[in-house]
Design goal:
Layout: E1 4-6, H1 25-41, E2 67-69, E3 73-76, H2 79-90, H3 95-109, E4 119-125, E5 132-136, H4 175-186, H5 196-204, E6 206-207, H6 210-218, H7 226-232, E7 245-246, H8 249-261, H9 264-267, H10 270-280, H11 291-296, E8 299-302, E9 305-309, E10 312-316, H12 323-334, H13 347-367, H14 378-381, H15 384-391, E11 428-435, E12 441-449, E13 457-458, E14 461-462, E15 499-502, E16 508-512, H16 520-532, H17 538-543, E17 547-550, E18 553-557, H18 566-571, E19 576-579, E20 586-591, E21 594-599, E22 606-609
Parallel strand pairs: 1-8, 18-19
Antiparallel strand pairs: 2-21, 3-11, 3-22, 4-5, 4-12, 5-8, 6-7, 9-10, 10-15, 11-12, 13-14, 15-16, 16-20, 17-18, 20-21
Helix pairs in contact: 2-3, 3-4, 3-5, 5-8, 12-13, 12-15, 12-16
Length: 610
């Protein structure tokens, strides 16, 4: 029984990524980007920024310096996972092997962010052939889900606390099938060996970190679920304290089964039954998932997306995430502005980036959803003429009074005109980047949704709540369908943005990504601009203060120099809010024969290499 499927459009081969002659770089980049967007477009169709349990973060710090290495490097949001990844590379494992072992460990030590009960997007670059492969493990709605999944019987939207947590919020997880598919093509070590570090750690126990403790303490729903309460809280109901040893024998048993029997262990048989039962029998918010939904899940290979930015090439992930499209669009919209002449975090830089973000957001929300259900006009969105016309809407001297999606002809088979809807994505996600000694590179963003996902804790891991990434109200007041409405087997739109950036000489320059819900795109764009336009190393670019756009309102990172420019931004016509913006950018760059690693101090990130 297969647990993965390849789309009809083949994954493009990338020997042309290694283009040369800087003077002709842009011409080649444009040709390559056009070919890729057409491949992606040819695929047949088939609210709040978070919740009260938004993950605890840490104050940004510019003090951390980049880490350098010559052979290989890992960067993740947790030191334990980073050490395990480096150990796998030291044993001769590939970048993909290290990513699998790190994800298994993150399931244990960072359960509020990701794990085998969630999903993700993985980009892989082959250091020998230059090929990029894009593996998608986005969660899928149960097959019984209707577009009214989050509506009450009388046709009104559910209150958020009725669907953010519990069984109704859970979608069929996809991380393990995605990793298994990628391992068949890019793994070097045996599959069982990759889970042994996490198994041993689960049995031995690990110390609760400050971030995990703070996340437990902040969550209003976790203690409502008996299995989660017994694991994350003391007998008297207090969050497990920092430094206490947390053992997870149930996860060890689950991972032993996965190591021995592959992903069938999770998607068929007793474990699958326990997952479905936990979702369906949730006492407050029962869900629809069945064991059959788990057995029917397929990971997919999607065509990657690439587009030029100046003389560089940006490659990201295609729908159902909007991250790749929006990252490429935002940068293209900014290309006519000489950002290199502006100071990082200056009023004009933040203004221009925010205006471009507004335009890209309007389009991604209007057009992007699961391409197996909706015709996404990828080539139209990335068309250079279209983006040039959209860029002309940006005025250096004032904010746009109104921002709407652009006009792109929809493909003939579109069921109905789509309607834009703001994402309800939550920020509890993780990202890891890996480069091995052969130059093979992985950028993987994975997630369980909001902090601790659905809060359903079964067989030692958290189940996601990514069904809530669908538009909860499926239609407008006029009855027009929203492109990201729920549907049986449908995959919700995401903003996850694992990204590869190629230098003018055609070499892979850096890989990166971030958690952060629908703010991910802004975090990635900031870092790319930091490296390309402001000539910063990857760590310094990560350290830059964050600014994002949410509901056309600029958000500036609390506790940073950006707070001082708020009045000037308001004078340009922007609505501005100061708030904590907890990114978790992990990036690895290659320059002058060295690997340069950067990890976000806003979380517990660590880059390690040899």
């Amino acid at each position: 029984m297969r647990l993965f499927a390849t789309q009809r459009s083949p994954v493009p081969q990338f020997p042309t990524v290694r283009f040369k002659a800087p003077a002709g770089t842009r011409k080649v980049a444009l040709a390559l980007a056009a070919a890729l967007t057409l491949a992606a477009c040819g695929t047949p169709p088939g609210s709040s920024p978070g919740n009260a349990a938004d993950e605890a973060g840490f104050a940004p710090s510019g003090a951390r310096q980049a880490v350098t290495a010559k052979r290989h490097m890992v960067a993740s949001a947790n030191p334990i996972a980073s050490r395990v990844g480096r150990d796998i590379l030291r044993k001769g494992g590939s970048a993909l092997d290290a990513a699998i072992a790190m994800q298994a460990v993150l399931t244990l030590v960072e359960p509020q962010s990701s794990g085998i009960g969630g999903g993700g997007f993985l980009l892989h670059f082959d250091g020998k052939s230059g090929q990029i492969d894009s593996y998608e493990g986005r969660e899928a709605a149960p097959r019984a889900a209707k577009e009214t999944l989050f509506m009450t019987p009388d046709g009104k939207p559910m209150a958020q606390d009725r669907y953010r947590a519990g069984g109704i919020s859970a979608a069929v997880p996809g991380s393990l099938p995605m990793l298994a598919h990628a391992h068949r093509r890019h793994g070097r070590l045996a599959w069982p060996d990759l889970f042994q570090p996490a198994i041993e750690l689960a049995e031995r126990g690990f110390e609760v970190s400050p971030r995990l403790h703070a996340s437990i303490a902040r969550d209003p729903y976790l203690r409502e679920h008996p299995a989660a309460r017994a694991y994350f809280f003391t007998a008297d109901g207090a969050p497990k304290p920092v430094g206490s040893v947390l053992k997870n024998p149930d996860l060890a048993v689950t991972l032993k089964a996965v190591a021995a029997d592959g992903i069938r262990a999770l998607y068929f048989g007793p474990i699958a039954k326990d997952i479905a039962d936990a979702v369906r029998n949730d006492t407050r918010r029962p869900g629809l998932m069945t064991a059959g939904d788990l057995a029917a899940y397929r990971a997919k290979v999607r065509p990657p997306l690439c587009g030029p930015y100046r003389d560089w090439l940006i490659c990201g992930f295609a729908p159902p995430t909007s991250g790749g499209i929006a990252t490429i669009m935002t940068l293209a919209l900014l290309e006519r502005f000489d950002l290199g002449r502006l100071a990082p975090s200056s009023v004009e830089a933040v203004h221009l980036i925010s205006e471009a973000t507004k335009l890209a957001n309007a389009d991604r929300l209007y057009y992007v959803a699961d391409p197996d259900f909706v015709n996404v006009p990828v080539s139209g969105l990335l068309d250079r003429g279209y983006l040039g016309r959209r860029s002309r809407l940006i005025d250096r001297t004032k904010a746009m009074a109104k921002v709407g999606p652009g006009s792109i002809p929809m493909l003939a088979r579109s069921a109905a005109p789509p309607t834009a809807a703001e994402d309800a994505e939550q920020p509890s996600t993780t990202h890891l980047s890996v480069v091995d000694s052969q130059g093979n590179t992985v950028a993987m963003t994975s997630s369980v949704g909001g902090a601790f996902g659905s809060r359903i804790f079964v067989r030692g891991f958290i189940m996601n709540n990514h069904a809530t990434d669908f538009s909860p109200v499926p239609r407008t007041k006029a009855g027009r369908p929203k492109v990201n409405r729920p549907g049986g087997g449908k995959r919700p739109r995401s903003s996850q943005s694992p990204t590869f950036v190629f230098a003018p000489d055609g070499r892979l320059a850096f890989a990166l990504g971030s958690p952060g819900g629908n703010r991910i795109i802004a975090f990635v764009v900031k870092t790319v601009i930091g490296v390309i336009d402001w000539k910063l190393d990857i760590q310094a670019a990560i350290n830059l203060p964050n600014h994002t756009v949410r509901r056309r309102q600029i958000e500036l990172e609390k506790g940073t120099a950006l707070e001082a420019i708020a009045p000037k931004l308001r004078a340009l016509g922007h609505k501005v809010r100061i708030r904590r913006l907890t990114s978790g950018i992990q990036g690895i760059a290659r320059k002058d024969g060295l690997l340069i690693g950067g990890a976000d101090t806003r979380r517990e990130g660590l880059a390690l290499g040899d």
